[in-house]
Design brief:
Blueprint lengths: L13 H9 L2 H11 L5 H8 L3 H13 L3 E8 L2 E8 L1 H4 L2 H14 L10 E4 L4 E2 L21 E4 L8 E2 L10
Antiparallel strand pairs: 1-2, 3-4, 3-5, 5-6
The chain binds zinc ion.
The site of zinc ion (ZN) has 8 residues, from loops.
Length: 171
Amino acid sequence: MTARPRGKATGPCPIGRAVGVIGERWTLLILRNATLGTTRFEAFRSELGIADNILSDRLARMVEAGLLARVPYTEGRRVRHEYRLTDAGAGVLPVLHALAAWGEEHTRAGESSPSMRVVHRPCGHATGPGGPRATCDHCGQPIRRDDELWVRPWRSPDPIPLAQPFPWKSR
Ligand SMILES: [Zn+2]
């Protein structure tokens, strides 16, 4: 079941509504890192270099908009919360692909850096520079979310599997 985002975005244009929910800079970067498996406040903070107050504001709005689920976990005897992608949050993946492809084509990395790659796990080959790919360039098979790995060589040579959406019921 797909969670229905409850952002304030309304109006006839779906692009306008989407930008109203996910178009803010930090929101997209939080979604990128959540897609790569980040779930905890401290991890988002150190990965993004974002101020505490801005991060907690964005996370709260993203939970309200149905992009993230706030899920309790215990650490010692303390109950804490982590932030997991909902179906709606995980559904941003094609947008991230499109941003990566656009960024490769129309912006520059500055210092020379190998590009981000998307790797198709079953065949082990890279498929495009992060662009939207329904099927693998190498083997022609459909690329499912759990078969997709990202390599971001400026961070680590290790391929990163994508986070799966948290099973979340719409309210
Ligand atoms: Zn393949």
